[in-house]
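User: My notes are a mess, but here's the protein and F7E's SMILES. Can you give me a structure?
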Amino acid sequence: MSKTVLITGITGQDGAYLARFLLRKNYKVFGSYRRLSTPNFWRLHYLGIFDKIKFLSCDVTDSRSISECIQESNPDEIFHLAAQSFVGASFHQPLYTTDITGLGTVRMLDEIKRSNKKIKFYQASSSEMYGSESSKIKNELTEFHPSSPYAIAKLYAHWTVNLYRKAYGVHATSGILFNHESSLRGLEFVTRKISNGIAKISLGLSKELTLGNVSAQRDWGYAPEYIEGMWMMLQQKNPDDYVLATNEVHSVKEFVQEACKIAGVPCKKIQISETNLRPFDLQYLCGDYSKAKKKLGWKPKTKFKKLVKLMVEEDISRWERWLKKEYFPWDAATSGEDSKIINS
Ligand SMILES: C[C@H]1O[C@H](OP(=O)(O)OP(=O)(O)OC[C@H]2O[C@@H](n3cnc4c(=O)[nH]c(N)nc43)[C@H](O)[C@@H]2O)[C@@H](O)[C@@H](O)C1=O
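Assistant: No problem, the inputs look usable. Here's the predicted complex:
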């Protein structure tokens, strides 16, 4: 018999890839999203799955809304991906981030505890929770030293998952995912900002790209592979915590250099601006995924250079199609800078 899933935050990169993955596995997919004036469904259209999803509007700041959403979908599994997920923005909106990213998870878990403890719950925990102060390579046993409002909210949610597992027997699992990227990434995140910016420079649509802390190093993997790992976690008999990572780090500068090489753009077109710096930034994050490898049989496949290549080539192709009037840049249309071009 086919299973039913509820994905909160289905409009984001991970939600869209996960929906496609589960549809291919014959799941009935319910997806919740925040009711905005202009819902942002471009990724679901891009993957050609929009018509296959049953949409529910759900506000994770409102327990009543969560309760209705769970009742209506009656899921076997919930992947809770809804969050304010941009670390930079969390410094400007700490309370909003705490409410959505931290308390949102508590409200979800509490509703599961109240209504149906058979539901398997996946929490999108984050490598940001580690902060900079702990040991160099992070695994499930490493101490957390969260250093942004986003990281603190995620850690609060992470510990709540742990508590509901132990105290109430909820089948709640946390995936501690290191950065995972793709051509469906939002333009506010650095990898997609670079691939999109350099694609536009290469086609004469933009003159330069402005970044912040280019010496920061991250463990960057390919998002669709991480989605599969998330699903594997929920298929286990017992709930647990798992790290997904590549165990390889590269700096933002290296990402820029590789992207420039692929697009044939001189690196001097990249500027640095104070406005892109965070009040506090993590310099280095590297993950150890050996538990996921041993227990789930999961491992990353796409290497750094291939990841940069696929992102840059996809953005160049999108803008080329836009120049030929064959394609509307859905995500770029929502960002200020790009909308100037679209409107001109
Ligand atoms: C695992 C974790 O992964 C992501 O969080 P993030 O690592 O903060 O991702 P990011 O792409 O915003 O920044 C990466 C690094 O790049 C630096 N950087 C330089 N210049 C710019 C710049 O211009 N823009 C941005 N965004 N970053 C810049 C920035 O300062 C930082 O050091 C989220 O998915 C989060 O939800 C999550 O859970």
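The first helix runs from residue 13 to 24.
User: Great, I'll file this with my notes.
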